[in-house]
């Protein structure tokens, strides 16, 4: 059940809200939490009921190990717990990848197991590893099973994050906020949810028309010319941006509707001035997990620059592999790792500045933003391509090795320059994979949105749980900030009806596959 | 303070709440249009009264075709993809059913044959095999999920769809009102029209399961493949049926053998053929060389299936021309008439006695260069136009 499906919007969500509202009036706090957990399990079972067992096994084993660690912080128990989680994830996500590579390297013929990946396993596994480590470190102290059940299974964050921290959610559970539907938070959550829904249905799913055919054609072995390659890759860059942004908004909006504040996971990443800044804005809770539970234990910045760079590279390689069991994801992670290392080296050694320091001039910032977006977009080629050949095919096109083809109608527009263009080797044919001005306008429009406009959480003045990053407050656009006014209500109502009408054409959230 | 938020929530949600009762009107609209009629009833109506079934809502061709097969108990069937949909009852002098668009890849052929044989065994099976089925890069949903979608039920998506049609101009407000009032048009010959596509466009399945492309052929709607541009785009970009590939998948050949073996075991006489592509599309594929390296291998593998067989990928030797296509890779019924006569020339096909040869020869003589000779659901005064914009004299 997608957040952007009729089943969710017209049935599951209203029914769950109604149930929570009834229990708020006549039930106890525990009953509300159990109801929300039951609804979340139902939500999960809707995809494939067989995987409820996997979720339950993971949940119960981690809870029991957590209890044991709470009694005594015994390191072997922690290692056992982490090992269990990694085995579970490894079995479902990486066994076939491993077999395929063993076959390739050793020339063996071991049959792949064709294991179906349970949805959200990467997310709930990491969330629970963090829990075990926090218990071991005495940073997680509240261990009611009901609370733990909801902490792991709460449906807005179960399938694709954010990867929530025990210490972010438990105080809210203890304060009785779960399932407490209050007009102020509900209205704000509703506004954020609708904006997210609109982004998914009307933007992310629309722009896939420019990217999918290019990647499909490249996968089929078609040599993609320059314009088409850049068109397709740029479109994908915006598709994944709006898709993940939409999902993150909807998760936060849903959390608020049910009285809970989830951490921010997405904060205008294409406005990042460097790759370091990008990872503070894109999938923030994953970056946090990798930093706290991998980078710092590997030594962080405590053992000199070489060790630090190695740790960074390892973290990003594993971060890439976390996204999917394929070499394309490993390369994507390696590219980001290399970019992080280079940025750190450049700032520390060449400029002599702190890594997190922003460029000091407007020109420096603009340059940083443009370069970061360019790098991220090129790296997405590996992320989206089904295999390495496809990625190199597209990259070849992007550097002009597959020639330049312009729509034949453009020859007329070029006037006197036409013959020179032909002489320069530009071909004027049917450019099937480039949809002309419409595509250019789409991309420019989206660029304006991501660079110039406040993000949803800025519009909505969202306040995340204490101790997590907060988006910068609105400045010039503060007059437009969301408030419970009739104008906002009518606008959001129109947006939601538009979404309801066009919802069925949509695709799955891209991050669900991880 | 709370009152402001409550008012806000009410204003946001009220139109959505109002949309739901409006959905009840959509239910009535869809019911009147026949979109909520069960496929069992549709198959029965078509056998009793004739008529055209064209749903705009349900991807239920597979179970619908099996219902039709059960209702007709035919001696002859055509099975395959949408590329065999122009075989018609009028071409045969024995009972016939067209089960086209039920097979999209070899594994589905096995499933269709099993499901069909569970209902009955036809005497002759005309099995159209698309050579791209054997290309491993050509992937389709392997889980047969659409086989269970029988239609007839009101899903949330279906409830919203008429609003979308109204917005997109696919259904006019007048039509919507008229349907709500129960005024459903019938075909000019008095036969029923079931489903929005049949009513609005005149496109759908006839009682024999053959497809009518009247919306394009008579120019009611713009054709989707003028100049074969859409098909040529697919060929160039290697998408959908035209995925590029160098080698065939041996497992898929085995699946075809299994399907044919099951039919033979049941006592059916199986004739296989490769349906034609338009000359321009075929030339384009040839020009891409190794990108379609699998094609020759596939054709050889299909020819080696040990059945009476004809390879019509190049339809020219049988007289098929581009003007007789509906789009780049779907030949119309005039072209099919040519193929049937060509097939019958092979004595092993055993088709001579079951073909309506007089009709087929008349079609070829009088309708050459046309996409269809079947005017059963034509509206008054309509004539076939050069809908592909190829410069075809019609």
Name a few traits of the molecule:
heterodimer; A: 514 residues; mainly alpha; 2 domains; two-stranded parallel ribbon; 21 helices; 2 strands; 67% helix; 1% strand; globular; B: 394 residues; alpha/beta; Rossmann fold; five-stranded parallel β-sheet; 11 strands
Main beta-sheet strand count, sense and barrel state of chain A: 2 strands, parallel
Counted by DSSP, the helix tally of chain A is: 21
Compute the average pLDDT of chain A.
89
β-sheet strand percentage of chain B = 5-15%
**CATH structural class of chain B:** Alpha Beta
Structure description:
The complex is a heterodimer of chains A (about 525) and B (about 400). Chain A has 2 domains: about 5-180, no CATH class; about 185-275 and about 360-514, no CATH class. In chain A, about 65% of the residues lie in helices and about 0% in strands. Chain A has helices spanning about 5-25, 30-45, 50-70, 75-105, 120-135, 145-155, 155-160, 165-175, 185-220, 225-255, 275-280, 285-295, 305-325, 325-350, 360-385, 390-400, 410-415, 420-425, 435-450, 455-460, 485-500, and strands spanning about 405, 425-430. In chain A, helix 1 runs antiparallel to helix 2 and helix 10 packs across helix 15 (about 360-385). Chain A starts with 5 loop residues before the first helix and ends in a 12-residue tail after the last helix. The mean pLDDT of chain A is about 90. Chain B is about 40% helix and about 10% strand. In chain B, the strands form 4 sheets. Chain B has a 5-stranded parallel sheet. A two-stranded parallel ribbon of chain B has the order 1-5. A two-stranded antiparallel sheet of chain B has the order 6-7. In chain B, a hairpin with a 2-residue loop joins strand 10 and strand 11. Classes of the chains: A mainly alpha (about 525), B alpha/beta (about 400).
Helix-strand layout with pairing:
The complex is a heterodimer of chains A (514) and B (394).
Chain A: H1 6-26, H2 29-47, H3 52-71, H4 75-106, H5 121-136, H6 145-153, H7 155-158, H8 166-174, H9 183-219, H10 226-257, H11 275-279, H12 284-295, H13 304-323, H14 327-350, H15 362-384, H16 388-398, E1 405-407, H17 410-414, H18 418-423, E2 427-429, H19 437-452, H20 456-459, H21 486-502
Parallel strand pairs in A: 1-2
Helix pairs in contact in A: 1-2, 2-6, 3-4, 3-5, 4-5, 9-10, 9-21, 10-15, 10-16, 10-19, 12-13, 13-14, 14-15, 15-16
Chain B: H1 2-33, H2 39-49, E1 52-53, H3 61-72, E2 76-80, E3 96-100, H4 106-117, E4 124-128, H5 156-168, H6 173-180, E5 193-194, H7 196-201, E6 203-205, E7 211-213, H8 214-217, H9 229-237, H10 250-265, E8 269-274, H11 279-287, H12 294-303, E9 309-311, E10 325-327, E11 330-331, H13 333-344, H14 357-367
Helix pairs in contact in B: 1-5, 1-6, 2-3, 4-10, 9-11, 13-14
